Amino acid sequence: MLEPVNVSLESLNLMTLAPMLIPIVGALLILVVDLFKSNIDKSLYVMLSILFLFTDFMALAGSSSAFMQNGTLLGLFDVMLVDGLAIVSQFIIVVASMLFIPLALTSKRFHEFSYPEFFALFLFMIAGFQFMVATDNLILIFVGLETASLSLYTLIAMHNREKSFEAAVKYFTMGALAAGFYSFGSMIFYAVTGSVEINQIATVLVANGFSDIGFVMVGFAFILASFAFKLSLVPFHTWAPDVYEGSSAAMAGYMSIVPKIAAFIVAMRFFEFLIHSGLVWVEAILYVFVVVTMTAANLWALVQTDVKRMLAYSSISHAGFAMAAVMIGTTQANTALLLYWVLFTFTNLGSFSMLWISRQKKMLPGQNSDHSYEKFAGLVQSSPMAATIMALFMLSLAGVPPFALFWGKMYLISAAVTSGYTVLALIMALNSAIAGYYYLKLIVYMFMKDPVDSRYEKVIGSNLSLSLKTIIGIAAVGTIFAFIAVDPLLQAIGGFVYNSGY
Amino acid sequence: MEIGLNHYLVLATILFGIGLYGVMRRKNLLMLFFATEILLNSVNIGFAAISHYYADLTGQMFAFFVIAIAASEVAVGLGLLIVWYKRHNSIDLDEMSVMRG
């Protein structure tokens, strides 16, 4: 006979769930609104999404002040884990989403935004990412990851173009494989330790001195492969350029930011106890991944003829750059990773939005890709403003001081040097130099060359609307004035990361 | 011979290998979905066996979640497949080569 279980409501600590529940409620509300009155203008849904994301932001602010007072919070039978990492990464996720959703208000009509389901799925996806970062239970990580990924596949396919279906199917296949790897890896860790919580896995493994090292190695390989898919680390990156090309530019920008920060946080939680336990081979494998990802993606980016594919390879390279911080694993490196990603959010969102404003419904005769370099040739003559802003984002991506990403790169490289990874720091610096070449190539096209075809002039900026201008403005201001914000940001993030023990 | 934990784990690994091979080699989308199902369900066998071995329910909980996720994955996948079929009258992966890579 089973005893009835008595659980007091306080011990559940339901407040830890609030930030995830808010977008879920918002998504359901959007669906209900559509049920009662269909054919509402999309701006209502955009506003509702922003409203709920803002409420989410406030709830996060609440839990961050609770964290400041009481330290790490646990809730719901210790499944939820709200520590500094969870809070900072959720802030990044929510803010990036708030900046993304106004991009739906374009001056041209697009298929996907006319469905309220787009916004509902978008909010579900955010809740999935938030669950993923705010737990150390492998089950909840898996559920969050899949909630988010399944929504993302659908969002890509809703763009309703030949290429976007292809992109969605490719991403789906890769994602299903990654899900299989992830669950097999967790099965091995469960078999070795009898637990699915990362901190207990760590405790058990350290207590028995890694006696089953062979199994740990296999499990680590599977988990690493699944996250390498999500983070698009070479050689698991093959889907990334195609998926970026197939989805809308706004969605591609979003995909280069938010899913990756969620995966970085889980990778941090999972890999760092292995590295700190003195397993040299874990460090060696991650080292190889980091170096190969940075370098190979940079070399591929050099030969691209399409700006969007170039940016896709550049985001792969940036992901490798940030993965170095996970490998180094000190508090300074983890802080640098989060700072890097905050700055990267603004810059990359801006550069993908600049592609989004030049989105064409139909390609011109003789044009073989959506955002070819030729399209931007001589842009400075027709619209100097757009050319300058685009150049600004490119310079920031290349790491030219004083723009945003320079600071991120500097802190990350200095973290590598202080931890004794001088060679790695050198490789990182060299890669920034190589990357400069292809960013400058676009600037050369915009400023030095003459327009290839006068019809491109009308196309660029044809998708521009007030809300797109606002988002690009915010991104530009964030990129230019980053040097003011870097110090306070570093203080705040450093406090959160240090107090949660990473 | 007593059937122990290791036998189940070996079975799970073999099924995982079959699923992995299927995902890599199959060119038909529907067959590819079957392969991912095998991939995920092999893990379920492992979880159920380990859970019994440790007399701990967590593994079975994980297996239930994996079942639910596999089901929703197929739902999304079939949606994509139907759209693809309507446009191309084929569900062959080789036709997906508009983009390089």
Itemize the secondary structure elements and their pairings.
The complex is a heterodimer of chains A (502) and B (101).
Chain A: H1 9-12, H2 18-36, H3 42-70, E1 73-75, E2 80-82, H4 84-100, H5 116-133, H6 138-157, H7 162-193, H8 198-207, H9 213-231, H10 239-246, H11 249-255, H12 258-276, H13 280-302, H14 307-328, H15 331-357, H16 379-382, H17 384-398, H18 404-418, H19 422-448, H20 455-459, H21 466-480, H22 482-499
Helix pairs in contact in A: 2-3, 2-5, 3-4, 3-5, 4-5, 4-12, 4-15, 4-22, 5-6, 5-12, 6-7, 7-8, 7-9, 7-10, 9-12, 10-14, 11-15, 12-14, 13-14, 13-19, 14-15, 14-18, 14-19, 15-17, 15-18, 15-21, 15-22, 17-19, 18-19
Chain B: H1 5-25, H2 29-54, H3 58-88
Helix pairs in contact in B: 1-2, 2-3
Architecture overview:
The complex is a heterodimer of chains A (about 500) and B (about 100). Chain A is an all-alpha fold and about 500 residues long. Chain A has one domain (about 15-360, about 370-500). Chain A has helices at about 10, 20-35, 40-70, 85-100, 115-135, 140-155, 160-195, 200-205, 215-230, 240-245, 250-255, 260-275, 280-300, 305-330, 330-355, 380, 385-400, 405-420, 420-450, 455-460, 465-480, 480-500; strands at about 75, 80. Chain A has a two-stranded antiparallel ribbon. In chain A, a hairpin with a 4-residue loop joins strand 1 (about 75) and strand 2 (about 80). In chain A, helix 4 (about 85-100) runs antiparallel to helix 12 (about 260-275). Chain A is globular. Chain B is built from three helices and no strands. The longest helix of chain B has about 30 residues, at about 60-90. In chain B, helix 1 packs antiparallel against helix 2 (about 30-55) and helix 2 (about 30-55) packs antiparallel against helix 3 (about 60-90). Chain B is mainly α and about 100 residues long. Chain B is elongated. Chain B has a single domain (about 5-95), classed as Helix Hairpins, CATH 1.10.287. The interface of A and B includes residues 162, 165 and 167 of A.
